[in-house]
Amino acid sequence: MDHNKTKNASEGIAPMGITTLNETVLSNQPESRYECPVCLNWLRDPVITTCGHKFCKSCITSWLKNSGHCPIDNINLSMKVDIFPDNYTKREIQEQRMSCPFAAKGCAVKVTPLDLDAHISTCEYNQPESSTQPNIEIPCSFVAVGCKETFDNQEDANSHLHNDVLSHMSLLMNAYSKIKIDNDMSNMDAKAQEALLWDAPDKDGNQSTTPPINDVNPLIRALYERVVVLEQRNREQDIVIANISKQLSAFAVAKMKQNNDMLLRYCMGHYIWKVDNFRARLDAMLKDHNKMLYSPGFYTSPNGYRFCVRLNISPQNPKYFALLVHLMKTENDDYLDWPFNGRISFAMINQYDPEYTQRDTMMSDSTLVAFRKPTTEICLRGFGYSEYAVVDDIMRNGFVKNDVLIVKVETRFPLSCDHRCAEAGKRIKPTNLVFQTLTSAPRPSRQMHGTNVNTSWTFKMAVLSQLIGFANRFSRAPC
């Protein structure tokens, strides 16, 4: 096949007396209902799909082998169940009659559109007028979209149209995309030029000094004003949301604080202090004996006294823990009875065997500063044991579990005279100063599994002396 293009063929101009393929195609274009969307020619062996489109049988067969869906609407199709012969359209095409393209030369034959190509190749009038006439190359029908193939005869051109359907479709898509992009760019440029015709008002409310344009598109103006309003509303809503978020955060913190305060206020003097991260806290106290751990303040009743527990290393003997309670200042102090009068119990919980929990009870003493009305947030004087328990015993014998030490504190008040006398025998007098030990009576030796009381005669006499003193004091006090 000779692909050398002559000037006349490439420009679509044929010598006088010669009919080109373009002239033939333009004069024999099928109606849209008889045109195949793939090859753009008359339907040959027309078939119809379940989605309602018509194709040449060979065209749709070749198409479905490569893609598997309809070229028009991309619906999946199957040759076996979705393709049917369209005999009605086939009969209509066969009833059509077309004149031979060489009728001007004298050919009077009229054939069906599908037989026209075969007639042209055998028509006796399809002959050059002169033997000196140069060979005319026939360009492809898709030359306008980029196909550069040329042919010596119509038969080769028709074969090319049927065999290179996918290539032609690709050229059409490229051409369509380029046209669409150019069209979109033109529309955007036009809109930009229209937008420049109108100046928005200044932010301070002053009107633009640019004179108005009579032909300004009112839709552009309305859209611009709408955008400005929406942006302003969006900023206002962002500010409102930020303020609400801050309020919610503050409310959540206040609510959590209120819940914690309610738990401490309504514990009725029964408080369980869980000292978490205890090993790290103990290491810090061992390095600095002035470091102390304080529990949150808890109340004996909703409007009653307020206490807190203090745990630290005894400065007198660093091998021991000191455990004391402190009165705390409250809004109820003005109408409470002072000094505090009641009983305070400690229990350091053995978390592996509750039988070995260490329990101790002590009575208040009205003569001590520790039980008077506090003048500071936390009373500077504590009441308790400066040598409560051995540090190593607490760490080894099951009192610390999951790095948590649990101390239970219970306060009870007021006590009747009879109850005070009965409880006096159980009293273990604590210190009135923070680090002062007992001087009036020998302190019982303390073990990890309870309190081992010395039963010597001296100790018994000392306890009896205390009982007599308490009984005399309580008998003078009103019950």
Automatic annotation (TrEMBL):
Gene3D superfamilies hit by this protein: Apoptosis, Tumor Necrosis Factor Receptor Associated Protein 2, Chain A, Zinc/RING finger domain, C3HC4 (zinc finger)
Compartments, record wording: Cytoplasm
BP terms from Gene Ontology: innate immune response; lipopolysaccharide-mediated signaling pathway; regulation of apoptotic process; regulation of canonical NF-kappaB signal transduction
Main location: cytoplasm
Keyword Thylakoid: no
MATH domain span: 268-411
InterPro entries attached to this UniProt entry: MATH/TRAF_dom, TNF_rcpt-assoc_TRAF_met, TRAF-like, TRAF1-6_MATH_dom, Znf_RING, Znf_RING/FYVE/PHD, Znf_RING_CS
The UniProt record lists the keyword Endoplasmic reticulum: no
An example Gene Ontology CC term for this record: cytoplasm
GO molecular function (one): ubiquitin protein ligase activity
Keywords, sorted A to Z: Cytoplasm, Metal-binding, Zinc, Zinc-finger
All residue ranges annotated as the RING-type domain in the record: 36-74
Annotated protein name in UniProt: TNF receptor-associated factor 6
